## 1
Amino acid sequence: MVFAKIVETEKELQDAFFVRREVFVKEQGIPQPLEIDEYDESATHFVAYFDNRPIAAGRVRFTDELVAVVERVCVLPDFRRKQIGILMMNCLEDFIHGSEIRKVKLNAQTHAIPFYEKQNYIITSPEFLDAGIPYRAMEKTI
Ligand SMILES: CC(C)(COP(=O)(O)OP(=O)(O)OC[C@H]1O[C@@H](n2cnc3c(N)ncnc32)[C@H](O)[C@@H]1OP(=O)(O)O)[C@@H](O)C(=O)NCCC(=O)NCCS
């Protein structure tokens, strides 16, 4: 069974970092010092499991502008296109919904734009590069 949850323990945090490392550092080649950043300390983290194995992750942080920023959403390659990304996004958005914040923003890697559009995010910026990867800003009101 697959389930997604908010990170509550150090082990769950390390599980989320494991998935992020597998996807962003090993698969995509993003340098580890950029993958882990200053926001990890204060962000709320999420992890998904299949048979006690961590398979997906993501994080949410709130800004001073009353915006929730969704970042580091990732699913291990073997588990993609099985609606686990959607499960993770629903878990993040449920958490955001529990706050007063209704505006959600994210920077989508361009290949992932259809994934976010399926969840009603709209593009709000031209393409830009970060660590050599093309992104476009997207947002949604929940
Ligand atoms: C983007 C990512 C999180 C999607 O996770 P996933 O579990 O494969 O996505 P889901 O199965 O929940 O997809 C839901 C829908 O989004 C769309 N979608 C997902 N991946 C897609 C892709 N690569 N191309 C086109 N549409 C896609 C499809 O409409 C899909 O529904 P369908 O499979 O019924 O057609 C995953 O591909 C991933 O981890 N990629 C590497 C890390 C990354 O780029 N993260 C995003 C950073 S902004």
## 2
Amino acid sequence: MTKPSPERYSAVAVVLHWAMALGIFALIGIGLTMKHGNIPKAQVVQLFQLHKSIGILILLLVIVRLAWRLVQAPPALPSVLPALERKAAHAGHAALYFFMLALPLSGWALVTTSRFNIPTVLFGLVVWPPMPFLADSADKAAIHEVMEAFHKYGAYVLIAVLAVHIGAALRHAVKGDAPLSRMSLFGGKAGGSAK
Ligand code: HEM
Ligand code: HEM
């Protein structure tokens, strides 16, 4: 007999979801401020390092998160949801995972190919290496241009996908058909295993 699906995400998945959400909101805020804010150059330099540090942390965490997802399957979406909404939710989640991987990778690629050659020092402590294969590429300038555009417009698309994700989560919470407690830090016993 197959085990019934748990009603909640596991504790590990919940903690990773909210820690990464916090990190990504910070990255969006810092990214937009360092590029478009009217602030002194010295602070811009610090913000770039902070942005790169949190961004690389997100890259490492998303690898852990995807590995965990393979080990511990997420709870099935409630069967009361129409099939189309379940498909849309899965597509939205896949898009979020895509950007959680693609944005840090494109960020790493764009700093590796930058003509300024500024090292990435994570939280002022650990030197992060340039991306293998790209550091010695003959087409650095062209790659840089593509990665920079991808990173910028990718981040804008992520913001739009996040608006839909948060809107959908709140809408279902109000309707009560897919409660927020499925991903809540405090909503009772976090199920890792089937009930
Ligand atoms: C940067 C911000 C965020 C990102 C990248 C993000 C990403 C994700 C992803 C990828 C999943 C699917 C997890 C899986 O199946 O493995 C998910 C689920 C979920 N997220 Fe977010 N999320 C963010 C912010 C938020 C916020 C602010 C809320 C609350 C309003 C929220 C509420 C939820 C809920 C309730 C689920 C579970 C959906 C279900 O019932 O299955 N998320 N999120
Ligand atoms: C989920 C992860 C990330 C998100 C959401 C994100 C978001 C952003 C945003 C919103 C901007 C401003 C775009 C603009 O309006 O021009 C930006 C710029 C930038 N990001 Fe990220 N970022 C992430 C990861 C990274 C990583 C890991 C690095 C490098 C290691 C990085 C390096 C940069 C750089 C150098 C810029 C400035 C690019 C330019 O001069 O046009 N980012 N990022």
